[in-house]
Design a protein that fits this description.
This protein is mainly α. It contains 17 helices and no strands. The protein has one domain. Helix 11 crosses helix 12 and helix 12 crosses helix 13. The longest helix has 26 residues.
Length: 396
């Protein structure tokens, strides 16, 4: 295990212990900050974790794999910890500022790499080839797209006479990085969806139905103007065609399609309760071996690159309902917020929902932590008691 992973794991443990201590010292969930007991997110997260714990009784996975998968989903507790520890909106703003500074460092560093400037702190394996800083291009593209949406919707929070204009400039810089520098198709898709949503919110209500065609128009414009987008979309089309014609599962799209087919088979075979937590690798190997007795086992703890199907494999149809219920619960909590806070939180939630279509986003370490921290921060920001003037309402 790398030192950075060890430090992050210890930090998450300390965060959880601090949250538990804070709740015990407050003698309840209703004092200061977010009234956690009155949120929809609290029971949703607890229900998800309880379901995964109960599935330990019927999982087909070895205990070590099952426990490892359960620990990965334990990151959902970060959302509750953020809301429990942040006492008012001012503290939430400080935390969000630190979060934004870190994301800005990533975006600026990526641009520096793109123009061949030295970046001593870049530690990614694809720093030279794909201009990534700390993670892979898939994760970084998604995070930068979400960061752009935050800068736009919360631009009124940036202090100074030109604060909002600076925030808008950073949003443009981040999106440009996603569309013209990064090659991650998931990040590009998230960027298109969030940009379409932001444009829709800026339009008069009678024109908001245009959001149906906006993503297609944006993709067409990017296909013409961005070599990165054009190359990746063309490659995706070729990979899908090769898989359809030759069952070629050696490409990125081919692997996903092969995994998704097997995941759907597992759900069809175990629709009521699934195969249990951590069962994906075991079930995939079982099905592959039926067709090819010489099949070599895939890596333990792998995933089908689709969060919804992964929950279906582990918990059956109830798992699909649970992940939908979790996202809807967060959405219902955002409806209580002031407009700019709500739009920022809803953008982050939509980005998570889209990313989960092509990756096991919550199951994965880095990107899963990113979304849990961010959603917890935004819920704390929007639901906690104000400690200053309300955020200016931009456009309705």
């Amino acid at each position: 295990m790398g030192l950075s992973i060890a430090i992050i794991s210890i930090a998450k443990l300390l965060l959880l212990l601090c949250a538990v201590a804070a709740l015990l010292l407050r003698k309840g969930l209703s004092q200061d900050g977010v009234t956690l007991a009155k949120t929809f997110t609290l029971p949703a997260v607890l229900a998800v974790l309880l379901a995964f714990v109960l599935s330990l009784f019927w999982t087909v996975a070895p205990l070590r794999e099952a426990a490892g998968s359960l620990a990965k989903y334990g990151k959902l507790m970060i959302i509750l910890a953020m809301m429990a520890l942040i006492r008012d909106r001012r503290e939430a703003l400080y935390a969000l500022a630190a979060f934004a500074i870190a994301q800005l460092l990533v975006v600026l560093s990526s641009w520096m790499l793109f123009v061949d400037m030295p970046v001593a702190w870049a530690s990614s394996r694809t720093t030279v080839s794909h201009y990534t800083v700390f993670s892979g291009y898939l994760d970084q593209g998604i995070m930068s797209a979400v960061f752009a949406a935050l800068c736009w919707h919360l631009r009124g929070l940036v202090p100074g006479r030109y604060g909002p204009q600076i925030a808008v400039a950073v949003a443009v810089l981040s999106l440009a990085n996603v569309f013209f520098v990064m090659i991650g198709r998931s990040g590009q898709l998230v960027g298109v969806v969030l940009l379409s949503l932001a444009i829709m919110w800026q339009l008069p209500k009678k024109y908001r139905a245009a959001v149906v065609v906006l993503p297609f128009l944006l993709v067409a414009a990017l296909f013409v103007s961005s070599p990165a987008v054009r190359e990746r979309l063309t490659l995706a089309k070729t990979e899908v065609q090769n898989y359809s014609a030759k069952q070629d599962a050696s490409t990125s799209s081919g692997v996903r399609l092969a995994f998704w087919r097997r995941a759907a088979q597992v759900i069809a075979q175990r629709p009521l309760a699934g195969a249990g937590i951590g069962s994906w690798s075991s079930e995939y190997d079982r099905l592959e071996r039926l067709d090819n007795p010489r099949h070599k086992d895939i890596n333990r703890g792998s995933n089908p690159h689709q969060e919804y199907l992964l929950w279906g494999v582990q918990l059956g149809v109830p798992g699909l309902l649970l992940i939908a219920g979790f996202m809807l619960s967060v959405l219902r909590d955002t409806l209580k917020m002031e407009t700019p806070y709500a739009r920022a939180a809803q953008s982050a939630l939509l980005a998570l929902a889209v990313a989960c279509l092509f990756n096991s986003t919550l199951y994965d370490g880095l990107i899963g932590d990113f979304f849990c921290v961010l959603i917890g921060l935004l819920l704390a920001l929007g639901l906690s008691k104000p400690a200053g003037p309300p955020l200016p309402q931009h456009a309705t």
